[in-house]
Design a protein that fits this description.
This protein has 15 helices and twelve strands. It is α/β, with parallel strands linked by helices. The chain folds into two domains: about 250 residues, Aspartate Aminotransferase, domain 2, CATH 3.40.640.10; about 130 residues, Aspartate Aminotransferase, domain 1 (Alpha-Beta Complex), CATH 3.90.1150.10. Bound molecules: pyridoxal-5'-phosphate (PLP).
């Protein structure tokens, strides 16, 4: 098999059936049959690699997982119903009561809730470092710290964490490094190259890329994935075969889609930088980004999300949203359709101002997930909405 990303995305395919289909069909079946008692015994004893029941594996989920495993340079993986079930099941499988996590403060909202509201029920505590203070990470490590966790680029402020540095720290202190690689996709960034033990994706975002289905996946070292798999096959967060079928097809076009998303995003970021009603633009591949050098080192392109600061604070942010004509106001991202959100008045409105500022959400911050429309139309819509 080729080492090229695009070829692997297209040519990694489940064995053909008796019908010699060209494109992988949908295997909507909850279970699989056995030849006889011995076949069944050997299959359940895992002496044979085969499908038993779709909570464990299914040809469609296996094809999807195999593609992500190759794209990320991992050893094995498991597919989940959502990104959050991937995050939760990975932590639940690997942690014991009394273990400790060191995490970036800028993580997806539900991941943050998991750390603050739910894992403490099992006596698992988390300490946080700010994205701009990676030098504080070592001081947070305790004798019971087991996992170092981060997302990069971060949501919604589009900050960048140095994966090489995180990889070195994890190795030095014998921690498991787990990276949520959702914003970058396996096309733009491979955390395993920098020392990550496991990589998690919400496939709901750019992997699907068309806002249709939810999905998640965890890939990485085989022994760790085995733990995650054993936990998951017993607790039931499996991805549905239908979603796996959709997502495996999506991966065939991931490279071309993400290239175009990034090309459009860079153009929009450059436009925003030149607009007099915009105070600050954060896009990883703009020279003005505070972690531009790190982004260049670890990412192929800058991604499709831009954060920018409108002059005039919370009211200007709300006015901007109300003037938007074509782009969508939605909480999702990584869609063909450009999406704009104003975190301070919506997704993060319940946080105190101090907590919001700690994760880089100022009152005028707007997050834009740039889609695949003609970029002129996206720029024109943002331009007219910025005329305050
Ligand atoms: C969306 C998202 C998740 C959660 O994924 P779901 O598929 O919505 O459960 C986790 N991490 C990041 C960075 C995300 O953007």
């Amino acid at each position: 098999m080729s080492d090229f990303f695009e070829t692997q995305a297209i040519r990694t395919q489940t064995e053909r059936s008796q019908f010699f289909e060209h494109s992988t069909p949908l295997y909507l079946t909850s279970s699989f049959v056995f030849e006889d008692a011995e076949d069944m015994r050997a299959s359940f004893a895992e002496e044979k690699q085969r499908n038993l029941y779709s909570r464990f594996s299914n040809p469609n989920t296996t094809e999807f997982v195999e593609k992500i495993v190759k794209m990320e340079g991992a050893e094995s993986g498991y597919a989940f119903a959502t990104g959050m079930s991937a995050v939760f099941s990975t932590f639940a499988a690997l942690l014991n009561s009394g273990d400790h996590i060191v995490s970036s403060r800028s993580v997806f909202g539900s991941t943050h809730s998991l750390f603050t509201k739910f894992l403490p029920k099992w006596n698992i505590e988390t300490s946080y470092f700010k994205v701009n203070e990676p030098n504080k990470i070592e001081s947070l490590i305790q004798p019971n710290t087991k996992i170092l966790y981060a997302e990069t680029p971060t949501n919604p402020a589009v900050d960048i964490l140095d994966l090489e540095l995180l990889g070195k720290l994890a190795k030095k202190h014998n921690l498991l490094l787990i990276i949520d690689n959702c914003f970058a996709t396996p096309y733009l960034q491979n955390p395993i190259k920098f020392g990550a033990d496991l990589v998690i994706h919400s496939a709901t975002k750019l992997i699907d890329g068309q806002g249709r289905v939810l999905g998640g996946v965890t890939v990485g070292k085989a022994d760790l994935v085995r733990e995650v798999y054993l936990f998951s096959r017993n607790t039931g967060p499996a991805m549905s075969p239908f979603n796996a079928w959709v997502l495996s097809k999506s991966l065939e076009t991931l490279a071309v889609r993400v290239e175009k998303h990034c090309e459009n995003a860079l153009k929009v970021a450059a436009f925003l930088e030149g607009n007099s009603n915009v105070q600050l633009v954060k896009y990883p591949f703009l020279k003005s980004h505070p972690q531009y050098e790190i982004a260049k080192k670890q990412m192929r392109l800058g991604g499709n999300v831009i954060a920018f600061e409108i002059k005039g604070g919370i009211n200007a942010g709300r006015k901007f949203l109300n003037k938007i004509k074509m782009c969508s106001l939605s909480a999702n991202l990584g869609d063909t359709r450009t999406i704009v959100t104003h975190p301070a008045s919506t997704t993060h409105s319940k946080l105190s101002i101090e907590d919001r500022l700690e994760v880089g959400i100022t009152d005028g911050l707007v997050r834009c997930s740039i889609g695949l429309e003609n970029v002129e139309d996206v720029i024109n819509d943002l331009k007219q909405a910025l005329e305050i």
